[in-house]
Amino acid sequence: MGGLTHESLVEYLIEEAYEVVDSIEAGAVDDELRGELGDVLLQVVLHARLAEERGSFDFAAVARGINDKMIRRNRHVFKADGSLQDSFPSSVEEIIVKWDAAKRAEKPERKDPFEGIPPHLPALAAAQKSLDRAARAGLDVDAGLSVDAQGALAGVGLAAVPASEEALGELLLAVVAGAREQGLDAERALRAAVRSFQNTQAPPS
């Protein structure tokens, strides 16, 4: 595959993934969604082919790896041989606890709850994932917020946060618009706040 590299394909992998998101959120018909998923799968195939050409792994190894991972991390669903368990957890909360326990067992040396969050996630996604990770690790999320963030939250109160995603989107858009008027970069500002939150909550090294 002359000329192609993992690095040169990265932008296409990201682009195709976002096209799947766009299709889903636009209520795409199945044929369109199937096509978009195929485009993402092609990117996986290309990366696996590049790895195969250098003697590392192939597409079949990728498939086996994710199959093994799903069985290993979902012992509440699968037995060790891949067959289904006789009974399943009764709540989502119980499933999350079992999933987290399986992940911790894989990497017991990992103490930082934020390790593994992709550094290039958009700031909003990184913020949500960081807050989720902190809460699931039993950390005091509110205490991890900066003084300014705590003050802002106290000022508006949780009741002021819109109850619908549509209204929340409008509020966030308004915040970005206000930031733009003041010459501030909302994405960079939130990314910095997320880093600060992670550093505050992460255990000392």
List the helices and strands and how they pair.
Elements: H1 6-25, H2 30-53, H3 59-73, H4 92-106, H5 123-136, H6 141-144, H7 147-156, H8 165-181, H9 186-201
Task: Describe the protein.
This protein is an all-alpha fold. Among the domains are: 1-57, Helix Hairpins, CATH 1.10.287; 123-201, no CATH class. It is 66% helix and 0% strand. The protein has nine helices and no strands. Helix 1 (6-25) runs antiparallel to helix 2 and helix 5 packs parallel to helix 9. The longest helix has 24 residues, at 30-53. The N and C termini lie far apart (43 Å).
Provide a brief overview of the structure:
This protein has helices at 6-25, 30-53, 59-73, 92-106, 123-136, 141-144, 147-156, 165-181, 186-201.
Keywords:
mainly alpha, 9 helices, MazG-like_dom, NTP-PPase_MazG-like_N, nucleoside triphosphate diphosphatase activity
**Percent in strands:** under 5%
- Report the radius of gyration as a whole number of Å: 21 Å
Mean pLDDT over the residues = 90
What's the main sheet like? none
Number of strands: 0
Q: So how many helices?
A: 9
Order of helices and strands: HHHHHHHHH
Our measurement of the CA-to-CA distance between the termini, rounded to an integer number of angstroms, reads 43 Å
| Secondary-structure-derived class | mainly alpha
* Helix content, binned percent: 55-70%
Shape estimate: globular
Q: Unreliable runs, pLDDT <50, ≥5 residues?
A: none
InterPro entries: MazG-like_dom, NTP-PPase_MazG-like_N, NTP_PyrPHydrolase_MazG
Domain NTP pyrophosphohydrolase MazG-like: 5-78
Pfam families: MazG
GO biological process, one term: TTP catabolic process
